[in-house]
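Hello forum,

I keep getting stuck at the same step: I have a sequence, I want structure tokens, and every attempt I make locally crashes halfway through. Rather than fight my setup again tonight, could one of you with a working pipeline run this one for me? It's a single chain of 244 residues.
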Amino acid sequence: MCRHLGYLGPPVPMKGFLFDLPHALATQAWAPRDMRGGGTINADGFGVGWFPPGADAPVRYRSSMPIWSDTALPALAAATSSGAILAAVRSATVGMPVTETAAAPFTDGKWLFSHNGVVRGWPGTIAGLAGDLPVEDLLTLDAPTDAAALWALVRAKLRAGDHPAKAVSAVVDEVLAVAPGSRLNLLLTDGTQMIATTAGHALSVCARDDAVLIASEPLDALPNWKSVPDGRLVVATASYWEIT
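Reply #2:
Ran it on my machine without issues. Output:
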């Protein structure tokens, strides 16, 4: 059911999160520890988005290949430092396409978004919710997947002026109401704040005075990783985080 991570703090090379740490994202792709019944490996694509220093909008790199098979990524990750990063590896739900455009992060303007999980009964269960979206948004989805549709729902609320935490939590509540049992771990950032949910999937937070790292699974064995209980919302900046 995919793995993702988000980082806010001083600029650091992306390579640590993706490859170097003992349980980095590339390791989680083929040896995840907590998939909650949602597959065994994450080999159906990956993506990473980051904010270059001083930039208002992120840069994104995605592929339909397994993260460990992309020979260009290690050098790119070693040469790229950022203080705001969102990365994900994908385990596609049966019947959904394995394409570059189906891999998180999804983006629009300043936002990066990822989804770990599955919408039960897709697509019929959330057809009513999607029917409230502008037709143009539906016609320009990155891919015909539940994750892309969830991003469209969140993005519509952001455009309407909702606070990011309210937008994300409202979408989770609305989808669970029509598709019970869905796994809806969402991760959203604009480079200054992160919003994350736990709904049927694992999530942990690691914080120090000037940085916060949120990940599906701890990237190392340091004792300051905190497991986030199911059904909760995490709001974080580089210097602050809370679970509600």
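The mean pLDDT is 95. If your local run keeps crashing, start a new thread with the error log.
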